[in-house]
Write a structure and sequence with these properties.
By secondary structure, the protein is mainly alpha-helical. The protein is 59% helix and 0% strand. It is built from 18 helices and no strands. The radius of gyration is 22 Å and the shape is globular.
Length: 398
């Protein structure tokens, strides 16, 4: 039984290219399935979060991260009476636009694309699902519902207008070109909040990475359990495990503590959402969109504690000397490949030839090259750099 403020499949605004209804799947289930079967989703297997693809089989990739985000989103949505299929679809699609090498690759590509309209991974995800996936006879992209596109575009909040968060706000006249193109074809109401399902997908992303980056940082040896015992959220979790299971084997102790960190985040989000929904009493999803604030968020105390955890991760993991060394190496891969392809687009595979020939100026050509580079996996980018430049800049351990 869905809540009145959930996105109801029968009330979907539909698809840009009309299609007949499936006899056994809702529109949002169909969106989810198209995302899972897309080429871009498969490539997430070899795109990394923090550590580069070759550094170990146990570290999270964009694919495993997206699956974890989807699981959290389904859990929270189910408790709140939201549409779990829509929340899952948005969660699975939210990282499709990421480059190889995590945020390092995105930073490099954004810098290189600055003269040509910039680069933004959320906008690139929209470009992928509306244009770059080309498998269907009747349209480019996946022809997703309006609600899923809205969730991809606005899961972090309004993009323009007075309610846009400063971290994600854009000048209405200078939107990322990929977002502007999609919005011109179909108004995504960028000045409003997204559905509660999209908001759940956004916070599920925060829950997932806050949890698994602690796991990956421990496995990498960048910090220890003793370090985490000094932090809010994590410290009490380890203390509880030690009280309940004294002398527990190291890996079990780690897992038991971090699953408590995970559980506290999820329980906090649910409790806050239930309280806010009970107070606001929204009668429709449009009331959620026009509330002027997010309905799905952490409590203020937990948010402050998580800020301390993220600061710790920033200094001890994301900016650790060993990580920064690899960041410099993979930045060189993107810095070398992008201008090479821009100078000689004939180096791109044959299936890109039609787009290259249709490019009317250097800006359009640069955007095609950015599509190609952004779509690369870590492994493929390193291999292509070695083949085309005659040098492999990435130093491998051992």
């Amino acid at each position: 039984m869905l809540a009145p403020f959930a996105c109801l499949p029968d009330a979907s605004r539909g698809r840009l290219y009309p299609e007949g209804m499936s006899s056994f799947r809702s529109p949002f289930q169909r969106d989810r399935d198209r995302i899972i079967h897309s080429s871009a989703f498969r490539r997430l297997k070899h795109k990394t979060q923090v550590f580069v693809e070759h550094e170990g089989d146990y570290y999270r990739t964009r694919l495993t991260h997206s699956i974890e985000v989807a699981q959290v989103a389904r859990t929270i949505s189910g408790v709140l009476g939201l549409n779990t299929d829509l929340a899952e679809a948005i969660a699975l699609a939210h990282d499709l636009g990421h480059t190889p090498f995590g945020h390092t690759g995105e930073d490099a590509l954004a810098r290189l694309m600055q003269p040509y309209g910039g680069f933004d991974h959320n906008a690139q995800a929209l470009r992928i699902v509306t244009r770059l996936e080309r498998h269907y006879a009747g349209f480019d992209g996946l022809n997703l519902t309006w609600e899923t596109l809205e969730g991809i575009a606005k899961h972090n909040g309004p993009v323009i207008g007075p309610n846009a968060d400063a971290k994600h706000a854009h000048d209405p006249d200078a939107l990322p070109y990929a977002l502007a193109e999609v919005n011109a074809a179909w108004d995504l109401e960028l000045d409003t909040h997204a559905s509660a399902e999209a908001q759940v997908a956004a916070i599920a992303d925060d829950v997932a990475y806050s949890h698994h980056d602690l796991h990956d940082g421990l496995r990498s040896g960048l910090f220890t359990e003793e370090d985490l015992m000094e932090l809010p959220v994590a410290g009490p979790a380890f203390a509880e495990v030690d009280r309940l299971y004294p002398g527990l084997e190291k890996m079990r102790r780690r897992h038991e503590a971090l699953r408590r960190v995970f559980g506290r985040m999820v329980e906090d989000v649910i409790a806050v959402a239930q309280n806010r929904l009970a107070g606001a009493q929204p009668k429709s999803v449009d009331e959620i969109r026009h509330m002027g604030t997010t309905i799905i968020r952490f409590s203020k105390p937990l948010y402050q504690e998580l800020k301390a955890v993220r600061s710790f991760l920033f200094h001890r993991m994301y900016r650790a000397p060993s990580v920064m060394e690899v960041r410099a190496q993979v930045t060189r891969v993107v810095d070398d490949l992008f201008p090479l392809f821009l100078r000689d687009p004939g180096l791109l595979p044959a299936e890109w030839r039609q787009d290259i020939d249709a490019a009317r100026d250097e800006t359009e050509l640069a955007r095609i090259v950015a599509d190609y580079v952004a779509g690369m996996t870590d492994r493929f980018a390193i291999q292509e750099h070695a083949r085309l430049m005659g040098v492999d800049p990435v130093v491998r351990a051992g």
